[in-house]
Specification:
With about 240 residues, the protein is mainly α. It has helices at about 1-25, 30-40, 70-80, 95-115, 125-140, 145, 170-185. Keywords: Heme, Iron, Metal-binding, Signal.
Length: about 240
Amino acid sequence: MMRNLLLAAWAAAALGAAPQHADKQAPDTADANQALIKRYCATCHNQKLRTAKLALDVLDLTHPEKNALIWERAIRKLRGGMMPPPGAPRPPVEAVNALAAYLEASLDRAAATNPNPGSVRIHRLNRAEYANAMRDLFSVEVDAAALLPTDDISDGFDNIAGVLKVSPSFLDQYIMAARAVAKQAIGTPFTGKDVKRTLRGIDPTVPLPPGARGGISAKYVAPYEGDYELRATANP
């Protein structure tokens, strides 16, 4: 009996405390957050003052994705505690966090529903990409650094489309590079002279077959189409 009375008293206390807890909850709807912005943010960021070139009083908080860049900036300010600024009236921390969370969730949901990865403008290959493409297409190793001009760097990357532009001088370099690659890949007419080349040692860029012990490894590009004779000699 005593146990039942204690459970009933605990349940009554919990039910009685629920409305008070609800009153303290931070706003999590568009209308509530719109009122929060109107009270604490729009006093400066409005159409008349346009502080920091922002007019938040005319933005639709029901669809933050329509002004995603502005709200992304606002989120950073809210999460960093920079807005409202020092000295200005500030809402409770819970309300600020709830506003930031509402904006983040709304923007993420809109991005997931309508993904927009953007587009890549037409651009040329950089030197590394060019060398890789020639190797894949013609099975030849190309020293792109010797054939093509230095690539411009943007934000530490050399494959940004915005800087991989094509100018008349670049086009001339690519035509010269194409000739060099074609000559290496196809070869030149045989002149009738024997072609001899002596290879010694090990080329560290050419791995030996699995299980091999010693030997010679090297790369050789045949300059002409034809039959080649390989001879190997060894010293005792």
